[in-house]
Amino acid sequence: MAKRPYISVMTTQKRTNLIGLSRDELIEVLSNIGEKPFRAKQLWHWMYHRGICDFADMSNLGKPLRKKLVEGFYVGRPEIVQSLISSDGTRKWLLKLEDGNEIETVMIPEAERGALCVSSQVGCTLNCDFCNTGTQRLVRNLTAAEIIGQVLVARDEMNEWPSGKPGRILTNLVMMGMGEPLMNFDNVKTALHIAMDGEGVAISCRRITLSTSGVVPMIERAGLEIGVDLAISLHAAHDELRDVLVPINKKYPLDVLLKSCAAYPGARNARRITMEYVMIKDLNDSPEDARQLVKLMRQYKIPAKFNLIPFNPWPGTNYECSSKNAVHRFSQILNDEGFSAPIRKPRGRDIMAACGQLKSQSENKKITRPHGRTAQGYAVIGPVYTPG
Ligand code: SAH
Ligand code: SF4
Q1: Catalytic residue among 104, 146, 276, 363, which?
Q2: CA torsion, points 186, 192, 195, 200, in degrees to nearest 10?
Q3: What is the domain-level CATH number for residue 42?
Q4: Quick one: pLDDT at residue 8?
Q5: Is the pLDDT of residue 368 over 90?
Q6: How large is the average pLDDT for residues 11-15?
Q7: Contact of 13 with 164, CB cutoff 8 Å
Q8: Among this protein's residues, is 124 annotated catalytic?
């Protein structure tokens, strides 16, 4: 069994959280207390199909086993500290983790489906210029338990247990919350395997999208080892601008990024890679930019579709959203060249829940120093940002 870093197993008062363990790890943990592998299957069903947290409610586990479980383990979730509902029905939860850090998770309901926007890190190290999360100084990777925990909290809150409940709204996952999922590969992989497991949360890989700003060395592994749909935060049609907007471009420029997209395992015309493109006024929204994008997709032979995201403002940003006309003109050019290019409707702007607006509110309450360590003992990474 592959060992993962101990950090992915959360403990409270010496008890171990069973959430976030892979099936193999769960089997091992149970065998350490003298239990057979079939117990893991039973526990899995209660935790991920039925959403049960209390061992006392797991009726097919005998009393002696339940006693052992209560003594050494728990079924934990991040704690909801704030729950907001937008006028458009979007929901945002501010969640507190066991070490006091906070993250945000957003549920975007549509008529017959809905996507949960899941965070992978507290903050983000990559500091994209137009993204609120990138301004957050306090950064750490989320554990697998904290990542899958967001899905469980959403199911609790929306009363969507058991997992296959008819008419449920939480049908899709998008790794588009706070953080860069490919900078936290192992924990994201474990959490998504739990999400995809047919005997539990059971969200198919075709309903999960992982968005990356372009951590090229991990893109192929994401395709081979996780196998979900890929979205790339492209945002610029040439390196000069992308270096500014998405600084990881300096390390992995467009040529390298687009080659790795062309080689993404599983990408084909029926399963296209989504190119996300934030529309920023007078910066990347000209017809020439659109035509250059078409040229790039053809040159690198990428089975691509576009997703145009009107820039969502946040306090302190200098960027502005492109005009409606510019966005429609841009979309039309891509359409005329045969590329799907829907314009993403901003959701939850009134509760700061739209793409790129997420940032832990706890950040502002914490005493941090620009280089070194915070009062809480976490590394401070990235440039200093003064909240606007
Ligand atoms: N770190 C990953 C996923 C999280 S961000 C990534 O960068 O892909 C999800 C999407 O929102 C990305 O495409 C990101 O570039 C975009 N985004 C960030 N800030 C935004 C803003 N202010 N307005 C609109 N989209 C934004
Ligand atoms: Fe991080 Fe993505 Fe925001 Fe860039 S856009 S700072 S990679 S969360």
Answers
A1: 104
A2: -50
A3: 1.10.150.530
A4: 37
A5: no
A6: 67
A7: no
A8: no
